[in-house]
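During the no-cost extension, the postdoctoral fellow (Dr. R.K.) reprocessed legacy sequence entries with the updated structure-token encoder. One reprocessed record is reproduced below for audit purposes.
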Amino acid sequence: MSGKLKYLILFTLILCYSSIFAQTSESGSEDIKVRISGKRATIYSQLNSLSDQTGYMFIYDSKLFDNDKIVKVPSGEYLLSNAVKLITGDSRLETQLIGNHILISLPTVNEIPSDNKPDTPKDSDADNYAIVEGVIKDRIAGDPVAYATISLSQINLGTVSNQEGNFKLIIPDSLTKTTIKISHLGYVSREISVELLKDKKIIVQMDQKLIPLQEIIVRVVDPLRTIREAMQKRAGNYTLTPVNHVTFYREGVEYKDNISLTEAVFKIFKTGFMSTVSSEQVKLLKMRRFVNTDNQDTLVAKIKSSVYSSLLLDIIKNPPDFLSYETHNLYNYSHTDITSIDDRRVLVISFSQKEGITEPLYQGELYIDAESYAIVKASFKINPEFVNKTSDIFVLKRSRNVNITPKSIEYMVTYKPHNGVYYVQHIRGDLNFKVRRSGRIFSSDMNAWFEMVNCETITDNPTSIPRAERLPVRDILFETSYVYDKDFWGNFNTILQEEEITRIIKNYNFNK
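Re-encoded structure tokens follow.
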């Protein structure tokens, strides 16, 4: 195994909407007529049918009614405002046409009831911030859209949705006259006024982007040439100069019914892509952790530092072997699909290790902008056929009587453009292991994961971090000393926890 390859395998735990809201027209929807089929269906499906007929997307506070409730409305033609009332069963609801959206709301009610409000910033200047919270769904299937990017149009500030499509974005009041952009590979991007969304928990529907057939057959794509072009054009697509990132980070390990979770906010001095990872600096701003452990079955292993892994997973700065010219001969490459993001065509290049190679290499997909050749996303994993050979690479400590075998090691990294320059947006690693104690027949699963999202990029006068304030990124973050702050998050943006983790955290005593 080459030295370069060893280094790379040490990746450890780790609608086309064209309306401009500055010129939105607001009116009622009394003159819009729709037809209802009379079939039994969920409220979500019934409203979706109205969207198909009118071309308008609904926006509403998800607390107003139960989307999954099955209802039946007599067939016939209705005014849109009346149809909404009949479908939801609430005659108080009003509809308002704003741009390409129809807002459903209660009269004189502009906020979520106080007992249902999302957590608000605890800092003294909390009144200077607005909160946008909601869930992103595929409009047709109704499935959550995970890892969608939610950001302000004017500045590089934002977050991503979690695996269940949920998100929360905290915005300074000075920016509430702007628009929020929601984007995801394969979907038509959405832009919605902050004023329309603030202090509500909304459902955002996204349409899948259909690629015209002529775009698919227009020319043959050479996958290897495309990758080499992407690497040659890094200087034009990614920053050569340092910037500061404010990032949210979390990592966790789940074993049986036990979970350990660490969450933190970092300030990162991020150097240009031509520099090394060792030149990057991390400052810990805030942190919290909890362990839900059964004393009879304590955690059996410690995973190597995933903070360092998150830095390594910037594949533009640290090209893995499937991007390196010297090791392209280890892989087979193919052009397998075309998708889009933000109305830009994206080529999907798949890769897998060649037959006859028995070392644990990668397989996955690269998503490359067809015009600029910027790599906008990479999703890859260690070849499942050989992943069981990597146990010593990932596990730092283990009990003597425990055998730990990797089942799957997967990574994802995405990049987001701002003013024509791409920056790391989201990094995630998922590591799954089989754990078997000596003398026992059955094994248990242990899942370790980490992710980091860039919530703000500061390009003006970036500052390095004093040596005394730097976090040792190779250390295990879970073991870092900290003082718990009950007003932990303040005005920082985060990735929302999934429901299962939220339930566990809810009753956890962080002061113990």
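Confidence is low (pLDDT under 50) at residues 1-27, 109-124, 295-299. The radius of gyration is 24 Å. The remaining legacy entries will be reprocessed before the final report is submitted.
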